[in-house]
Specification:
By secondary structure, the protein is an alpha/beta fold. It contains 14 helices and 12 strands. It has 2 domains: about 250 residues, Aspartate Aminotransferase, domain 2, CATH 3.40.640.10; about 140 residues, Alpha-Beta Complex (Aspartate Aminotransferase, domain 1), CATH 3.90.1150.10. About 40% of the residues lie in helices and about 15% in strands. The chain is globular and about 75 Å long. The relative contact order is 0.12. Bound molecules: pyridoxal-5'-phosphate (PLP).
Length: about 400
């Protein structure tokens, strides 16, 4: 399907040029499009021709963004959304019926977990969970009404790896729709469709934008499923704005060089952390010490930009580490040019019980680093001084 290399597709996929023969793609800030005559309008609404009607349905900028992601992921078709969460919600809302059942990894994005536990049950859709080390038990969770297997890999914030090929085979054997949130890996590092995924979701807010500017989301995959997702979005309105699509499409042109440097920096940060006596353990998919290192090597090109580690001293040490950070940002985002550190146990995951946190490998001293594009020595220096600030004060 892919005639050109992924780097080229990310740059050269473009909508038709206008009469001005612009080199860089223009921004189409228009809510609607006009028709030549009554027949043109009738044929357009009857979908006898593929064209733009109204920007809640499609827009040239969103179409360009979606076609780039499709080419990079090896997908038949796709649809773009205002946020990653609207992509997740719309995908489930479009495909599931009352009474359906989901089998999901327990280590999923917080808001996706809320969708499964708080909102989908309102429509009588229930979810059963497996832990990252319980892949061999998934088949026992499948019920006659199971429709979807859902997973993220690498996981947030513990950076565990799930074997997508095993999940894809189980889904195929039982005729289930296999959906992967590929946000942490990006379409460059991992293409879940190669391992049997039917649909791939991204929060484009993260590494795809990569510069902390806009929110966006996208679902790509099997065209019959995308058709349903498109119709849901067209009727309910979570469309990506043309401006954000234009930004995101531009961002894809540099995604690969950015992600390569992100990964190079992250590996160095992980290797540094592994040597530190103040650190209990470090998890990074491309460190040989990672429990699923072989799987990571099989399904990912590089290890991604997220490193997690456990600082000695639990919650207090985690909070103190954050207070001593000087260069990196304390922020909820990730995948930005700027390095970001978070302490999930006292922030994003503080509302979970200790048992629930441990189920997703979030220990009290876990620190998540989203490694950015600053000079890696400056990032390491900042982490180092924050790790040892407490000790130096004592001395
Ligand atoms: C951020 C994120 C989302 C949600 O994306 P938004 O653009 O913030 O709505 C979904 N999944 C993962 C893995 C994420 O990191």
């Amino acid at each position: 399907m892919n005639s050109k290399h992924i780097e080229t597709e990310a740059i050269r996929t473009q909508i038709e040029r206008t009469e001005f023969l612009e080199h860089s793609n223009p921004l189409y800030l228009t809510s609607s499009f006009i028709f030549e005559d009554a027949e043109d309008m009738r044929a357009s609404f009857a979908e006898e021709k593929k064209r733009n009607i109204y920007s809640r349905f499609t827009n040239p900028n969103t179409s360009e963004f979606v076609s780039k992601i499709c080419k990079m992921e090896g997908a038949e078709d796709g649809h773009a959304f205002a946020t990653g969460m609207s992509a997740v919600f719309s995908t489930f809302a479009a495909l599931l019926n009352s009474g359906d059942h989901i089998v999901s990894s327990r280590s999923i994005f917080g808001s996706t977990h809320s969708l499964f536990t708080k909102y989908l049950p309102k429509w009588n859709i229930e979810t059963s969970y497996f832990k990252v080390d319980e892949i061999d038990q998934i088949e026992s969770l499948i019920q006659p009404n199971t429709k979807v297997i859902y997973a993220e890999s690498p996981t947030n914030p513990a950076v565990d790896i799930l074997d997508l090929e095993i999940l894809g085979n189980i889904a195929k054997k039982h005729g289930l729709i296999f959906i992967v949130d590929n946000c942490f890996a990006t379409p460059y590092l991992q293409q879940p469709i190669r391992f049997g995924a039917d649909l791939v979701i991204h929060s484009a807010t993260k590494l795809i934008d990569g510069q902390g500017r806009v929110l966006g989301g996208v679902t790509v995959g099997r065209s019959d499923l995308i058709r349903e997702i498109y119709l849901f979005s067209r009727n309910t309105g979570p469309a990506l704005s043309p401006f954000n699509a234009w930004i995101l499409s531009k961002s894809l042109e540099t995604l690969i060089v950015r992600v390569e440097r992100h990964c190079e920096n992250a590996l160095k940060v992980a290797q540094f952390l592994e040597e530190q006596p103040e650190v209990n353990w470090v998890k990074y998919p491309f460190l040989p010490s990672h429990p699923q290192y072989e799987t990571a090597k099989k399904q990912m090109k590089l290890g991604g930009n997220i490193v997690s580690f456990e600082i000695k001293g639990g919650v207090e040490a985690g909070r103190e580490f954050l207070n001593n950070i000087r260069l990196c940002s304390l922020s909820a985002n990730l995948g930005d040019t700027r390095s970001i550190v978070t302490h999930p146990a006292s922030t994003t995951h503080s509302k979970l019980s200790i048992e629930d946190r441990l189920e997703t490998s979030i220990t009290d001293g876990l620190i998540r680093v989203s490694v950015g594009l600053e000079n890696v020595n400056d990032i390491i220096q900042d982490i180092k001084q924050a790790l040892y600030a407490k000790i130096e004060i004592k001395i």
